Fold:
Amino acid sequence: MIIFIELPINSAARETRVADLTESYHKFGDRFHAVAISDISTEQFPDAFKGVDAVVHAAASIPEKQSSEVVLSSAIDGTLNVIRQAEKAGIKKLVVTSSIVSVINPAGTFTDQDWYPTTKEEALKATGFDAYRAAKTLAEKELWAFGEAHPHLDITTLNPPYLYGPLAETFTVPTGNYSALSTALYIYRFLTPDGEFMSSAGHADVRDIAHAHVLALTSPPTSAVGRKRILIASPHHFHPKATIELIAESRPELKARLTKKTPPEYAYDRIPVDFKRIEEVLGMSKDDFHTVEETMIETVNSLLALEQQWVAEGHEIRIPSQ
Structure:
């Protein structure tokens, strides 16, 4: 396994970050390699693809203060740069993490034919989350266009919603870096009295989506099952109010710090994805997914363990409320 880490070309943290990752995955020995690159959108790294049988191009982070130009370049040019180099190296099996945001549309349907309506011109004018979902949409469209021009490639995209679940044992979070928690921060906000709620109930357990990526590597070829654009989400209903009650019951010592905000009413409490299609391509059934109770409690437990570590390091916990 090779993992690419994008770091600034003059970053003093480059060697340290690579060393940290190598140490985190030391149990894999010489089967794991970390490669630092300065710009995933333009840099060439052909040697990294030698001996590689398949590529998993994982998700971009949700931007905070990046410009729309940077968000677009990272998503579109970054994806195409990796895929082009992989194809040039003779790699045919490609798995790419897209997002359910590239599917959301005014009709409110969730099929593999649906797209978020946007153009590059509109994306360049967008900011924050709007820029992110436009970039994810345009990047995925470019990917499929590349696939149509190179039919020998076997491409799978996975389009999940918000991901929750415990932090991986090998995942290190810099002290006090709340944004590094990604979407787990939405659950962490349940643990502060003025914490706001996520914008949608659509969710999946990150462990289930990781498993889906692995299964996609050995999925049937496109010639057998058609274009593999897989919308994937938890089959279980999610209600913030029920989750808060679950936390209070499971961890009564947290009752005083739980959010006092009124939970919103969502348009849906789970995303109606096609589980027959998921099972056809990936071999995953509804029973293979974590329950929402498992996901939420194990997320909270993981965040509290990290919190204790930060406190021990002298950090004063101030969970961002929104």
